[in-house]
Every structure is written in C-alpha cells, then in structure tokens.
Write a structure and sequence with these properties.
By secondary structure, this protein is an alpha+beta fold. The chain has ten helices and six strands, in the order H-E-H-E-H-H-E-H-E-E-E-H-H-H-H-H. It folds into two domains: about 170 residues, no CATH class; about 100 residues, no CATH class. The radius of gyration is 21 Å and the shape is globular. Bound molecules: iron/sulfur cluster (2 copies).
C-alpha cells in the first residue's frame, strides 16, 4: 500500500512523501477534530521550482513566483495529487480526507496571511479546523522547522509546498528526520526587507504582509519615487525600518498595489520570499542540499536601490 501511494503521488509531481502514525499527534490535535478515525497522516511535498525565484533575484519579473510558485501549486498541482491519492485509497475501501491549506481562513482574530490579500481573509474561524501544517510535515518526516518558521527539507531547503491526506488505513510510518539543516545562522532574519522576523525567529505577520507586498522601495522596481508622499514616516517605510501596528499595516497595504496581483486573492510577492531565498543560498553554499544544480542560485551580490532615490526635493 505504501509503495502504491508513493508511486501515485510521485506520478503527480509530489517530490517527497511521508507517513506518520496517529500516535505522533496529541489527542487534541486538529487532525482528530477533522477526522477522528485518523490512523495515518500522509504528507505530500512538492518543490517550488527554483526558477520561480529567479525573476526577483534578477529584478526582472515578479509575477512568476506568485503565479507558478504559489497560485499554481496551491490551486492546481497540490489538489490534483491529493485527489489521485485519495481516490486510490477510497478504491481500496479506506477513508481518505484530503487536507490542503485554506489560505483565507484563520482562527486568530487579528492576524494575516501575507500570501493573500488581508481583506480577503475570514478571521476568528475557530470552528473551521485547519491542521498545523508545519508540525504535521515534521511529524511525517519530510523536513525540519527552521528558525524562520519555514519547513526545511534536505532536498530543496525551504523551496517546497505541501499538503496531507488523513486516512483510516494503517500504513507503516516513516522515521522522523533528525534536524540537521538549520544552524541558526540568522540569514533569513537579516534578508527580510521589512525586518519582519525577530532574531529568535518570531515572524510578525502584518509586518511580513506589508513587505511581502513591496513596501521596501530599495527592493521594489515599481515603486514611484514619491510613494507615500503624505506620510511623515515614508522613508522609514521605504527603508523597511518602520515598526508597524496591524492598523498601520492595513493602511499601507491599501496603498502599495504597484503590481497586479494573481488570481484567487494572491498578491504578487515583491520581496520574493527573501527569507527563504537567503536560507536556500546558505544551505546550498554549505553543500547540505541533496538536489544539486550546475550553477549556484546566487552568483552575485543582491541588488538594491538607494533610499535616497525616494527623497522628495523640498520646494521653497
Ligand atoms: S537562514 Fe539560517 S537560521 Fe534561517 S532558517 Fe535557514 S539555516 Fe536556519
Ligand atoms: S522576506 Fe518576505 S516573506 Fe520573508 S519575512 Fe520578509 S516580508 Fe515576509
């Protein structure tokens, strides 16, 4: 059974497949609220093509990461693989409950998901159970949790997306992976153009949303030089040094549509997930990633405009 599930998942572009028994999850884990009969959690992880991050790295094209690396993965690739694995399990007489992350629902009353428009999120939906995707992926043995809160895999580093099938089939589990990748180097922290990740790895979701959307002018080729002209703190915002409350973040987000969003409420990532890219480059440089390329991802120093480019001349 395990090999057949792996085969189907891989035929449908899953790069990593992991199996966790129910006893790796606490009795109050959302897994059991979603499907009390869960005996095995199956994780399917998919690479985000390294080339999807290329445009932001070069400063040449920005929609490819969001359309191909986020929207296409979440709306097409992952659901199809979940569907095929689930159909096979049901054809064998088992329950199969596919679990794709719902990007627009969250239990928290005042948080956000940087990957979708903040005003398209339904908050405080505690009845809408969602799995803890990161912990469940670790429990299935497909990776480890990095300081930044990203899932790190030995094959692709943080350049992965993943989903699950819950089933009442009892399937031989995979071993947990020893955490060996994150060395607490802090490069994810320093790479963020909005200082959204604290040195201890805590991520401020609102700060992240603002800078994911491109509020740092030194990394945004589409920002006009007079952006945020009526804001006294405009240069702090543009330099990524503003410390934003959720209210202020909302105000800024309403004003930084410098680039068209993808469909399904996915705004274009202008930061290009700089935190994950820095982590990937670090792991690649250390030689610890098993998926090798002929050329390193980063071949020159990252580019940046100057904050001075956004200074508005004073008129007498
Ligand atoms: S950049 Fe360094 S500290 Fe951050 S997650 Fe990667 S390995 Fe860990
Ligand atoms: S680099 Fe981008 S995705 Fe990462 S924390 Fe900063 S704003 Fe968020």
């Amino acid at each position: 059974m395990k090999e057949e599930i792996r085969r189907i998942a891989r035929e449908n572009f899953a790069d990593l497949v992991g199996f966790a028994p129910a006893d790796r999850f606490a009795p109050d884990d959302p897994v059991f609220r979603i499907f009390p009969g869960t005996k095995t959690v199956i994780a399917l992880a998919f690479r985000v093509l390294r080339g999807c991050y290329r445009g932001t790295e070069e400063g040449t094209t920005y929609y490819q990461y969001t359309t191909m690396g986020v929207e296409n993965m979440e709306e097409t690739i992952l659901p199809m693989a979940l569907w095929k694995v689930s159909v096979w399990l049901e054809s064998q007489g088992y329950v199969a409950v596919p679990q794709r992350r719902h990007q627009q629902i969250m239990a928290e009353p005042d948080s956000t998901n940087p990957e979708v428009a903040y005003d398209a999120i339904y908050r405080g939906r505690t009845a809408e159970n969602q799995m803890d995707f990161l912990s469940a992926a670790v429990a299935c043995g497909i990776g480890e949790k990095g300081l930044s809160g990203s899932l790190l895999t030995p094959e692709f580093g943080p350049m992965v997306r993943w989903a699950f099938v819950l089933t009442d089939a009892v399937i031989e589990p995979d071993d947990l992976r020893e955490p060996t990748l994150c060395d607490a180097c802090g490069k994810c922290v320093s790479a963020c153009p909005g200082h959204a990740i604290a040195p201890d790895g805590t991520r401020d979701p609102w700060q992240c949303a603002v800078y994911y959307n491109g509020a740092n002018g030194t990394k945004n080729p589409f920002m006009p030089p007079d952006a945020f002209a009526d804001c006294p703190d405009r240069l702090e915002i543009i330099a990524g040094e503003a410390d934003l409350t959720p209210e202020r973040a909302r105000e800024i987000l309403d004003r930084i549509y410098f680039y068209p969003p993808a469909q399904h409420a996915y705004p274009c990532s202008i930061c290009g997930k700089a935190c994950d890219v820095a982590c990937y480059c670090h792991l690649e440089e250390k030689g610890v990633l098993t998926r090798k390329f002929h050329r390193p991802f980063r071949e020159r120093e990252p580019w940046a405009f100057s904050v001075d480019d956004f200074k508005i001349p004073q008129t007498k």
